[in-house]
Amino acid sequence: MIPQGTILQTGTPEGVVYRAPDTRQRFLGFMEWAGSFGTNADTIVDSALQVYVRDAKKADVYLKPGDKIVTRAEGLGQIFTTITAGPRAETE
Q1: Is the pLDDT of residue 68 over 70?
Q2: How many CA atoms lie less than 13 Å away from 19 in the CB half-sphere?
Q3: Exposed, middle or buried by CB within 10 Å (0-12, 13-18, 19+), for 45?
Q4: Is the pTM of the predicted complex or chain greater than 0.85?
């Protein structure tokens, strides 16, 4: 049970939110999907997302151990979070 007066904060801090694939990534996703006759992904969209993730990993934009996040709620305060290593998802 959550005690009365407890504040729950949900959501993702600014700067760590997924952005839709850009035109280049959508085009490359289509080309890779068509070139593989649809065997590289279930859909063209999935193929474009694969290009997006590949680009993001190459650019090193994902959160990693040691990164620090500050989440602020006006009038309530701040939460400081340090990213730590954990088990990797099997979907990677």
Answers
A1: yes
A2: 10
A3: middle
A4: no
